[in-house]
Amino acid sequence: MHDFEYRNGELYCEKVRVQDIAGRVGTPFYLYSYKTFTDHFLKIKKAFEPVKPLICFAMKANGNLAVLRALVQKGAGLDIVSGGELFKARKAGCPGARIVYAGVGKTDQEIADAIRANILLFNVESIPELENIQRVAHQLKRRVNVSLRINPGIDPHTHDYIATGKSESKFGIDLDTAHLTFMRSMRYPNVSICGLHVHIGSQITDGEPFVKAFRKVLIFVTSLEKEGHRIQYLNLGGGLGIIYSDEKPQTAAEFAKKVLPLFKGRRYKLIFEPGRFIAGNGGLFVTKVLYIKQAASKHYAIVDGGMNDLLRPALYGAYHEILPLTKATMGKVQKYDLVGPICESGDFLATNRKIQSLRSGDAVGLLGAGAYGFTMSSQYNARPRVAEVLVKGNRFDIVRERETYQDLIQRERVPAYLK
């Protein structure tokens, strides 16, 4: 599942003691396991080996260049949602032929840059977007591949903020509109509508919503093919859940066992876009206790990491298991709210959590922080963003330096009349 474990009461990432990294780097910081990231990618690759899919890691989960390069070197493609992610994908060494581009709000410049980068596919979310891609491609005298993102109207039974396959979602095109678009494909001479894309949400622990969605798409594909339309690519998205607390998500092998029979005898190029499944359990957020505050009804452990660093608990009510860097052999267990220094009541990393008794200076790690951790962080309250560290075996490297106060004002300018 992951490569964080205790040895003689000390928390290790692979072969490196986390406390040693904290002493060198300072807190708070994100810590990533190379082995966990690459192992999880290879598990999906192996599970679906019979159909040799293109597995595009969803960059929005973790956009660190070192992480991206590690996965690209193992054969991963990248799923991007912005021009900035395209830029980073190219810097990470990902060939254009292994990049797919999703997102509901692509600008003219982003579309043009992606066309020039020779990406494999645009995942198109609306007809106005398709028309705009046609216009930009015509200006560039290019013909580009497009996959229509289908909204299958499936409830994935996950948090509302990360459910994208419901009919009321902003994502995707309903089946009737998609069918009409194929019928009118001659209106888009610079676009090859050669694929379908379906992504119903994130942190989905059960295989049944996927099976329902894929069956619905296959029925639609069959009807299109009977009308003479050729489909080359089926992008089945991502969304596989991971363990944060007591979840029992399906493994990659179990997922493949349910999905592969649906595509037996069909000759589509399958594409997957896992993000959290690959990165989530590969990351630890390390933070240090500043103060222990006792209130009338509870104890607060005030730490140096806040909601600007790890937003998920405040945004989603998300659970991250807490591991002290040094485990007490004996002693009192106390119930704490783990809260940060941000001036917001919503600034918490955990509530009502039983942990070994903590003191000022103790450091703890929050598991499951490899996905949607640093990528969602900010400089709120003028707090520099934290460092990122990658461990491989018995070595660790700082793969993103901690920001400085000077970084906070690097792009700001005071007009002359205020000087």
UniProtKB/TrEMBL annotation:
<dbReference type="GO" id="GO:0030170">
    <property type="term" value="F:pyridoxal phosphate binding"/>
</dbReference>
<dbReference type="GO" id="GO:0009089">
    <property type="term" value="P:lysine biosynthetic process via diaminopimelate"/>
</dbReference>
<dbReference type="InterPro" id="IPR029066">
    <property type="entry name" value="PLP-binding_barrel"/>
</dbReference>
<keyword id="KW-0663">Pyridoxal phosphate</keyword>
<comment type="function">
    <text>Specifically catalyzes the decarboxylation of meso-diaminopimelate (meso-DAP) to L-lysine.</text>
</comment>
<feature type="domain" description="Orn/DAP/Arg decarboxylase 2 C-terminal">
    <location>
        <begin position="33"/>
        <end position="370"/>
    </location>
</feature>
<feature type="binding site">
    <location>
        <begin position="273"/>
        <end position="276"/>
    </location>
    <ligand>
        <name>pyridoxal 5'-phosphate</name>
    </ligand>
</feature>
<keyword id="KW-0028">Amino-acid biosynthesis</keyword>
<keyword id="KW-0456">Lyase</keyword>
<dbReference type="InterPro" id="IPR022653">
    <property type="entry name" value="De-COase2_pyr-phos_BS"/>
</dbReference>
<feature type="binding site">
    <location>
        <position position="239"/>
    </location>
    <ligand>
        <name>pyridoxal 5'-phosphate</name>
    </ligand>
</feature>
<dbReference type="InterPro" id="IPR000183">
    <property type="entry name" value="Orn/DAP/Arg_de-COase"/>
</dbReference>
<dbReference type="InterPro" id="IPR009006">
    <property type="entry name" value="Ala_racemase/Decarboxylase_C"/>
</dbReference>
<feature type="binding site">
    <location>
        <position position="316"/>
    </location>
    <ligand>
        <name>substrate</name>
    </ligand>
</feature>
<feature type="binding site">
    <location>
        <position position="372"/>
    </location>
    <ligand>
        <name>substrate</name>
    </ligand>
</feature>
<feature type="binding site">
    <location>
        <position position="344"/>
    </location>
    <ligand>
        <name>substrate</name>
    </ligand>
</feature>
<dbReference type="Pfam" id="PF02784">
    <property type="entry name" value="Orn_Arg_deC_N"/>
</dbReference>
<feature type="domain" description="Orn/DAP/Arg decarboxylase 2 N-terminal">
    <location>
        <begin position="37"/>
        <end position="279"/>
    </location>
</feature>
<dbReference type="InterPro" id="IPR022657">
    <property type="entry name" value="De-COase2_CS"/>
</dbReference>
<protein>
    <recommendedName>
        <fullName>Diaminopimelate decarboxylase</fullName>
        <ecNumber>4.1.1.20</ecNumber>
    </recommendedName>
</protein>
<dbReference type="InterPro" id="IPR022643">
    <property type="entry name" value="De-COase2_C"/>
</dbReference>
<keyword id="KW-0210">Decarboxylase</keyword>
<comment type="subunit">
    <text>Homodimer.</text>
</comment>
<keyword id="KW-0457">Lysine biosynthesis</keyword>
<feature type="binding site">
    <location>
        <position position="312"/>
    </location>
    <ligand>
        <name>substrate</name>
    </ligand>
</feature>
<comment type="pathway">
    <text>Amino-acid biosynthesis; L-lysine biosynthesis via DAP pathway; L-lysine from DL-2,6-diaminopimelate: step 1/1.</text>
</comment>
<dbReference type="InterPro" id="IPR002986">
    <property type="entry name" value="DAP_deCOOHase_LysA"/>
</dbReference>
<feature type="binding site">
    <location>
        <position position="372"/>
    </location>
    <ligand>
        <name>pyridoxal 5'-phosphate</name>
    </ligand>
</feature>
<feature type="modified residue" description="N6-(pyridoxal phosphate)lysine">
    <location>
        <position position="60"/>
    </location>
</feature>
<dbReference type="Pfam" id="PF00278">
    <property type="entry name" value="Orn_DAP_Arg_deC"/>
</dbReference>
<dbReference type="GO" id="GO:0008836">
    <property type="term" value="F:diaminopimelate decarboxylase activity"/>
</dbReference>
<feature type="active site" description="Proton donor">
    <location>
        <position position="343"/>
    </location>
</feature>
<feature type="binding site">
    <location>
        <position position="276"/>
    </location>
    <ligand>
        <name>substrate</name>
    </ligand>
</feature>
<dbReference type="InterPro" id="IPR022644">
    <property type="entry name" value="De-COase2_N"/>
</dbReference>
<comment type="similarity">
    <text>Belongs to the Orn/Lys/Arg decarboxylase class-II family. LysA subfamily.</text>
</comment>
